[in-house]
TrEMBL record:
Free-text comment on the cofactor: Binds 2 divalent metal cations per subunit.
Cofactors required: a divalent metal cation
Record organism: Halarchaeum rubridurum
Protein name: Endoglucanase
InterPro entries: Peptidase_M42 (IPR008007), Peptidase_M42_aminopept (IPR051464), Peptidase_M42_dom2 (IPR023367)
UniProt-annotated binding residues for Zn(2+) 2: D176, E206, H317
Keywords per UniProt: Aminopeptidase, Glycosidase, Hydrolase, Metal-binding, Protease
Lineage, opening ranks: Archaea, Methanobacteriati, Methanobacteriota, Stenosarchaea group, Halobacteria
GO biological process: proteolysis
Length: 350
């Protein structure tokens, strides 16, 4: 991996549920302090680091990746001290049983585990029942009085997981979207743009693209590019290659569409041309469902040309997601090349 693996590890192991991205915000501000001409944070918590353009500063490009990860909020504390949860983002409940979590209480983090009954004590009906997030509970290993003293309704909960290299992949929690946030930070350190670039780390993407939608109004850029992960179903359960969407190790994915946006064809073609000229591995992405911050910029403050670069990801929205190191490097290279070559003179009108 060409880029800073230690930074990627720090980002992915940090905790930041939607609306509670404080720890990620600190890393973003630190990493961009020597790069940006100005760094500011808005009322929602979006971070915007502005790099002034050298020759055409009036033309503005927004580049966004979101800071938040899927998590939970405590909605009830039982008399016995178990925590009931409300989902923040789209979880697959099947993967949650017996997983370690961190409860972010006012006086400090607490370790916990999502309970799971032993299978040999379950009835046939219980074994066949469908898992739901509302059925999950967190066991803190403490009695009810102590838990109620330390945990409040509204405290957030995130998964507890480390980041590891497995061959050519990087695995861990919150690769969605910290791997793309990492790519944005790395690209920002490499560019000397002609136009003004707003590097945006957004909030609350996992609960409806909320940060990017607000930011689209506040920034009103001439061009926007969002980075997010995308599906890589190149695994044994999907023998039909048409359902893979992308393949790990085949390069950065240039989005044509997802469930929230159809990208601007002219911007997309420029990305493809840059990748081919520079020899950067890339692949097309047609994602049937799901949305990204790209949509938050497309028409929030009038029509805008938008594009999206994606990092292929296996096991998305689970406890352990996996990205290929070459795809991450390709994403950094492609984004940096795109920003450095933007003059503000391309006509993206259709």
């Amino acid at each position: 991996m060409d880029a800073d693996y230690d930074l990627l590890t720090e980002l992915t192991e940090a905790h930041g549920a939607p609306g509670h991205e404080d720890r990620i915000r600190e890393v973003v501000r630190r990493e961009l302090a020597d790069v940006a001409d100005e760094i500011r944070t808005d009322a929602m918590g979006n971070v915007v680091a502005t790099i002034e353009g050298a020759t055409n500063p009036d033309y503005e490009v927004a580049v966004a990746a979101h800071m938040d990860e899927i998590g939970f909020m405590v909605k009830h504390v039982t008399d016995e001290g178990f925590l009931r949860l409300d989902a923040l983002g789209g979880w697959d409940p099947r993967v949650l049983r017996a997983q370690r979590v961190t409860v972010h209480a006012a006086e400090g983090d607490l370790d916990g585990v999502i309970g799971s009954p032993p299978p040999h004590t379950m009835s046939e009906e219980e074994r066949e029942s469908k898992d739901e997030v509302e059925d999950c509970y967190v066991d803190l290993g403490r009695d009810g009085d102590e838990v109620r003293e330390r945990v409040s309704v509204g405290d957030v909960v995130t998964m507890e997981q480390d980041t590891r290299r497995l061959g050519d992949t990087v695995t861990g929690k919150s690769m969605d979207d910290r791997v793309c946030l990492f790519a944005v930070l790395e690209a920002a350190k490499r560019i000397d743009p002609d136009v003004t670039v707003h590097v945006a780390a957004t909030v609350q993407e996992e609960v409806g693209l909320r940060g990017a939608t607000a930011l689209g109004v506040d920034l009103d850029p001439d061009l926007a590019v969002a980075l997010d992960v995308t599906v890589a179903n190149d695994i044994p359960q999907f023998s039909d290659a048409s359902k893979h969407v992308t393949e790990l190790g085949e390069g950065a994915a240039i989005k044509l569409k997802d469930g929230s946006v159809i990208t601007n064809p002219k911007v997309r073609k420029r990305l493809e041309s840059l990748a081919e000229t520079a020899g950067i591995a890339h692949q097309p992405e047609v994602l049937p469902a799901g949305g990204t911050d790209t949509a938050g910029f497309q028409n929030t403050h009038g029509a805008k040309p938008v594009a999206a670069i994606s990092v292929p990801l296996r096991y998305m929205h689970t406890v352990t997601e996996a990205a290929h190191v070459n795809d991450v490097d390709a994403t950094v290279e492609l984004l940096a090349a795109f920003l450095d070559s933007e003059t503000g003179e391309h006509d993206y009108r259709l």
